[in-house]
Design goal:
Alpha-D-Glucose-1,6-Bisphosphate, Chain A, domain 4
Length: 170
């Protein structure tokens, strides 16, 4: 009986190794912008408006549903790159927060991507923007987990820095 239990534990442990390799990764970036919370929220709140402030995207088109309605699907197109779809999971105008997911499969090194974007009051005269997500490495071994996290962090940083530049120069 002991051999059966030990054998079963061995099988369970070896079966869980691939799952560990497919662990959930997290990305988080934030930035303070010298502008009112309302000015910042107005610039980012539209689910169909990411391309208006994020320089990595050439278009953001509603495929089904309506802007800022939960369940809306948008098609994102990377400048000189692929397109993929995202679904709005939640939208809270009062808390100035929304979440969305990338609909798999996606032509990026991620899978199971879910993200939250929030605009918060900060110190006097400043607004804090937070962008975070969880996802899995889907690069088929071409990228280490740290590289995939860096890829997402960089995309967030580029967008947030451009948003800051746009809003602070107006």
């Amino acid at each position: 009986m002991k051999k059966v239990i030990v054998g079963a534990l061995y099988v369970l442990c070896t079966m869980s190794l691939p799952a560990a390799a497919q662990g959930v990764l997290n990305s988080h970036e934030s930035i303070e912008i010298r502008a009112s919370i309302w000015k910042v929220w107005d610039a980012v709140k539209d689910f169909e408006g990411l391309n208006t402030w994020h320089p990595m995207f050439s278009s953001d088109v509603i495929k089904s549903g309506g802007n800022n309605e939960v369940g809306t699907i948008r098609t994102m197109t990377v400048k000189d790159g692929p397109s993929f779809d995202e679904e709005l999971l939640s939208f809270d105008a009062l808390d100035k927060k929304f979440s969305y997911r990338v609909i798999d499969p996606v032509p990026l090194p991620i899978a199971g991507y879910v993200s939250t974007f929030q605009v918060l009051e900060s110190r006097r005269g400043y607004t804090l923007v937070q962008w975070n997500s969880s996802f899995r490495n889907n690069s088929d071994g071409k990228m280490k987990d740290e590289e995939v996290i860096g890829f997402i962090d960089n995309a967030y940083r580029v967008g947030l820095e451009n948003l800051k530049s746009m809003l602070e120069t107006k």
